[in-house]
Amino acid sequence: MFGLIVRALASRRAPSITLFLLTVLSAGAAAAAPQYIAASTRDLASASAQAAPVADRAVFMRRGIDTRDLRPDTVSQAEQEVSAAIGLPALSVHGTWMVNGSVVRGRDSNTMLLVHRSGFCAEVVLDGTCPSRPGEIAVNEATARLLGVKAGDRLRYAPGYEQRPLTVSAVYRIADPYSDYWAAARLVDASRAQPAPLLTTPETIVAAQPQTTTLVVDAVAGGDLFARTAPLAVRDHVIDAGRQLGQRGFEPETPLRVLAVNIYNSQLDIVYAVPISLVELLAFCWIALFLAVRHGALERHRDIGLLKLRGAGRARMLTLTLGQSALPMLAGGLVGLAAVLPLRAGTGIGGMSATTTDLLSVAAATVTVVGAILAAAIAERRALSAPVGLLMRAVPPRHVGWRYGAVDGVLVILALAGAYEAWSYASRAPVAGTTQQSTWLALLAPALLAFALGVVLARVVVPVAARVGRRALRAGRLGVAFTATELARRPAVPRLTALLTAAVTLFCVAVTTSDTTTRSGAERAANEIGADQVLLVTAPSRGALLAATRAVDQQGRFAMAVVASEDAGVLAVDATRLATVARWRGEYGGADAAAVAARLRPEAPAPLTVSGERLTLTAAAPRGSATVKATLAAAGGAVVTVDFGRVSGARADYSRPAEGCAAGCRLVSFEIVGKGAVRPVAEPPATQPPDAAPTVEPEYPAPDAVLFSALRGADGGVDQATFADRSRWRTAVGAGPAPAAVSVTPQGLVITPGRPVDSDPYVFVDDSPERLPAIAAGVRGAEFAASDPHVLAFPGIAVPISVAGAARAVPRVGRDAVLIDLETADLMGGDLGGGESLQVWATDAAPADLAERLADHGVTVFGSGTIAARAESYSRQAPPSTIRFQLLAAAVMVLLSAGALGVIVAVERRPRGGELASLRHQGLTARTARRAMFGGYLMVATVALVAGVLTALPARTILAAPLSAFPDRWDVLPAPPAVRPGPLLLAAAAAALVFALVVALASGRPRRDGGESA
Questions:
Q1: Record's family (predicted)?
Q2: Helix, strand, coil proportions of the chain in percent (round to 5)?
Q3: Which among 75, 102, 821, 988 is least surrounded, fewest beta carbons within 10 Å?
Q4: At 788, is the secondary structure helix, strand, or coil?
Q5: pLDDT of 670-683, one tens digit each?
Q6: Distances (CA, A) of 52 to 206, 221, 869
Q7: Other CB atoms within 10 Å distance of the CB of residue 347
Q8: What interhelical angle do 445-475 and 492-529 show, nearest 10?
Q9: Averaged over 720-741, what is the pLDDT?
Q10: How far from 464 is each of 405, 755, 947, CA to CA, in Å?
């Protein structure tokens, strides 16, 4: 029996090989599904963790500590407790010990935290020495400017250090504010409105003896945590740790638990959606194999009829006929499974073992092959039960009846139900904080629509073809007549048309969906990054960043200085380079980036510059005295402070060194402090005890006025006429202490300071517009329209703005934000400080050594990001992962339908060749014979191709809504079009090429007499 089956397969090689290849494809794709789920869920977890902000990967444990529990080892013990309780691998655990207090300055004070954070000296850039002894502190650069201190100065701090001042051992700048170490930065400086904390040793906090302190321990998971531990296991560890530590007085805050749950839910999206595509693939596989076997059985009808005439039993006939299909299918299933297993993905979702994943692959391949054999048995059943006379006919009958209509009706009803489910899902507004889960019927809606429209089209093809054939015969157009008659009389045409239409539809839907998802990820990445690449940097000041970037790229072709304040929703850019560097979109304020940049940079007064190694100030204070300092910005952005000392009495010259101004400096401001002010003092004399209180000079009435007449250097300067021009001077912008009174006389600028304890001592050069032009996006535009608009351009610096345009979003900082010019905002701020996030945006044309060039100008690069890398991380999220499998399944469906087409064409090749040979002897031309040989099923493929493309449009635009591009439903930018002509036509062309090749190969080469070649 087996030998008979093998000889039968050898005699009909083409259908047998086709069945084998179709089963290899089907079983291989089915076996790959569990492996794909395991690999993609693991990649998703890793990508989500790496892309998550540091604060989202952390667990915070907060506890109050009173005076009784103050010990130097309090922080280290708490770190050990938290680490042991959580018990996850590769955690970075650091403790932050905080004291709420204030720096005392005479009768004034500044609220400021005194903080110890373990290991902080390794994470900051120090100008001085790391605090190591009790009473030593490190002060942030901005705080040092605010307090007017430097390394070696002393500060009084309450509580604990009113009478024994703290020593400033260093001024610090955070090296990498985005590193895992600074996960608790928001807890330390949550509002960013208060000065940065004073960093110190634990012994300093213990010696202060505060009534209460706060201890925060943050445990930060590395980006590879979820590659080692399943998300639910991470969640359980965090919950258990919160319960244990809660009993010891800690208050837990667990963003890591939320992240783990979100990652697990995204993994479930893959587990939920990939089987949908697998079900579609299996159904398609069985239908395609059913058609292939059924029409392949036409070649065996005569053999079955002869067996019946000779009295063969039903079981023997079933074995002989089904074996010719089952044997290639079994071999194909084994080969398909063997091709997938070497690509083992390993551990799957929820810690599923690699063995379980492999068993699921074997089970999927087995189900595929068993279903294929059952489909073959059903296809052979009609031939086994048919009478001998029907089996001996050369032309098979067409089957009609209520069963076919019932199947078509069920498909149409299911398609309508799926369409309603998809439309209902898409029309529901998402509830904040929740995720909607669509039904399987909604996810199957495109496939159901494709099959339903396919069967409807199939019912139309036959009568239309018959009518076209009759008209062509009457008109004498034999080629058209033979082709149309072929379509009308062949029983395979209706079901084959439906199968091909469904395959083309699903393939076009998958290709366009993949295109849209890829573009969505790229557009989101471009919005969140801003330029081809972004370097995260540290610099002495915003001006230094601007100067360094312009020095490195003097032509403005590839680099742009940027300060991003994501908390405040402000993006400050060097607008002179905006059009050449940024990835611009019309939603950012207009299609023309150069025009937007021009609106951000109004014409401003010329800066006041002076150069020389010594500067001379001509000033007078007739009725008192005041200490005067000038702040200048060097050409490289460095801050130069010249202390002219005390000005008193009649007009006189005060000359001081100006280190850094030999090449020229821009005058920024004057600081005028009256005699009543109490300033920090330097180290006490040797005769004074180290813990003695600072020297405080006796208070005198503040002077009524200080007159400035000239500021000169070796070259240039500010003359008396400029000092006497009131339009060139201003006080601080925004809310704050009462400013000094400013007036002018022909002799120069007159400044009358207020009370030292509650006034702003600064007067600035007014070389900026009255209001800062800004592009406002989202609700910020509405806010500004309803009030006197101010923005926090930089931490602690509020400036008035004028809205120069509206936008849907701003790159990097999101929807509700503003875009401003960095240089103009820096001039208006006047503090010459830094910002929340200093960055350099660069194009792909930037030199490879850009970081080294910036370092040569005092700008240090500590991190970077690119649009390509961010887009790649989005491609590993749940929706793109499921869509990739959908695309793979759809491609396999096209090949399956093409295989079914090939089997049908090959089976009908011989009888069709005989018919055409007879017609050739009766006078049919060779050209008409060739057209008839190839034209029939090519026309079927063409009709299905056109119908599939047209069906893909509603299937993609209306019914594919349940698959969102991002799990978080990000919508800062409008979604790209669901269908682009290019990818749609490319998919159609690929399917057309496959169908044409299959028909050409399966039809054979016609002989000159019209028959078919061997």
A1: Belongs to the ABC-4 integral membrane protein family.
A2: 50, 20, 25
A3: 102
A4: coil
A5: 988 876 443 333 33
A6: 36, 11, 14
A7: 18
A8: 130
A9: 81
A10: 18, 98, 15
